[in-house]
């Protein structure tokens, strides 16, 4: 049997219940949008940015336009992210590492390169969402580089329609944002009569473009924090077509350089991510993997199957072989697995050793503290 799409055991982000709220958006023809109030199964914590130096700023940036350094202390960890100041990835970085200095990068690959070049200490990447699954290609970037997952953070993505101060909704002729944001808000934009949609590299970049060029006939889709950062008006909020819109971010770090024979203590409430590659027999390998974990009572929180040979013209998955000469190896069949527990746990070691016997390649992507909270920017 061939698998062309992701197979997930469960959706950890799904809300158990929800209520609805109707909001008047003051648009022509009295357009109303419904958005569901969040009632998640786990604690929803607020993403805040500590400020202990007294400097006037929003999200660590001393002025609205441009990519200036933050007021973070000189020894604060530097976290690279894709996008302009005010991007969702930057808020995720500030949530994961409070007080960090953020390093804006043009692409996700540039964020990883910044860590490898010593220009940043860590990089943060979005890897999956409740609306897109794992359509993001950042797992591929993770596999191609020798960085490890050190932390995870789940961010509620709340989209707003932003415009220059004083601009009325009836004056808008187009909307700009990241392609995924435009897709996530398609029905709402149609209701608002905004049919001209132009993609840009990221949501905060759209806001920056709006502000720097003083576009009076254009709106941008971004976060409420971006509106504060750039001094724009929020014309409508809760634009996302699906009210429960959560993105999972992974914080990537270089491997520890310590040479101690004693392994480091596992994090509290540990979770381990790994990738398993094989040449064929997808169903057989899948059943063997499930058996290796189930017989040892190890719970899986993620299971995704990539079968590139089942999709026409789909390239194989490239994985950096960190055990060998650091070369990239191509595999047509790959399994991504997250399981509860530390890789140093004897049961986990037994399961990994068993899987290594029937698979071609196994790589541990990281062991880190599981974080079930969903952080809201509002």
TrEMBL record:
From the Swiss-Prot or TrEMBL record, what is one GO molecular function term?
A: prephenate dehydratase activity
Q: Which UniProt keywords apply?
A: Amino-acid biosynthesis, Aromatic amino acid biosynthesis, Lyase, Phenylalanine biosynthesis
- List the Pfam families: PDT
GO BP term, example:
L-phenylalanine biosynthetic process
Q: Which domain of life is it from?
A: Eukaryota
Question: Looking at the keywords, is Electron transport present?
Answer: no
Q: Which SUPFAM superfamilies match?
A: ACT-like, Periplasmic binding protein-like II
Domain named Prephenate dehydratase: residues:
78-254
The record's Gene Ontology cellular component field reads:
chloroplast; cytoplasm
Q: In which pathway does it act?
A: Amino-acid biosynthesis
Residues forming coiled coils: none
What is this protein's record name? (wild Malaysian banana) hypothetical protein
């Amino acid at each position: 049997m061939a698998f062309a799409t992701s197979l997930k055991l469960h959706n950890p982000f799904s809300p158990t219940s929800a209520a609805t709220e109707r909001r008047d958006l003051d648009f022509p023809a009295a357009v109303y949008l419904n958005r569901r109030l969040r009632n998640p199964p786990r604690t929803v914590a607020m993403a805040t940015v500590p400020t202990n130096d007294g400097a006037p700023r929003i999200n660590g940036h001393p002025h609205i336009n441009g990519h200036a350094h933050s007021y973070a202390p000189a020894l604060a960890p530097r976290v690279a992210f894709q996008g302009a100041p005010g991007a969702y990835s930057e808020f995720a970085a500030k949530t994961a590492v409070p007080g960090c200095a953020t390093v804006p990068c043009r692409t996700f690959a540039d964020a990883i390169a910044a860590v490898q070049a010593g220009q940043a200490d860590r990089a943060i990447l979005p890897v999956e969402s409740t609306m897109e699954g794992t359509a993001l290609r950042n797992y591929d970037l993770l596999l191609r580089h020798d960085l490890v997952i050190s932390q995870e953070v789940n961010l509620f993505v709340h989209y707003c329609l932003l415009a220059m101060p004083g601009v009325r909704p009836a004056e808008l002729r187009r909307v700009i944002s990241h392609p995924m944001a435009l897709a996530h808000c398609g029905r709402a934009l149609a209701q608002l009569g905004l049919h001209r949609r132009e993609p840009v590299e990221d949501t905060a970049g759209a806001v920056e473009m709006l502000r720097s060029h003083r576009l009076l006939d254009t709106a941008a889709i971004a976060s409420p924090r971006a509106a504060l950062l750039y001094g724009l008006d929020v014309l409508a909020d809760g634009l996302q077509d699906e009210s429960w819109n959560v993105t999972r971010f992974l914080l990537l770090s270089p491997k520890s350089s310590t040479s101690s024979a004693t392994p480091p203590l596992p994090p509290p409430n540990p979770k381990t991510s790994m990738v398993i590659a094989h040449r064929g027999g997808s169903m057989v390998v899948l059943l063997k993997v499930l058996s290796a974990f189930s017989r040892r009572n190890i719970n899986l929180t993620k299971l995704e199957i990539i079968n590139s040979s089942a999709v026409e013209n789909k390239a194989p998955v490239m994985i950096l072989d960190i055990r060998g000469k650091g070369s990239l190896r191509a595999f047509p069949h790959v399994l991504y697995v997250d399981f509860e527990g530390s890789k140093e746990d004897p049961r986990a070691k037994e399961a990994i050793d068993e899987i290594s016997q029937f698979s071609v390649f196994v790589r541990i992507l990281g062991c880190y503290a599981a974080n079930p909270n969903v952080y809201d920017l509002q």
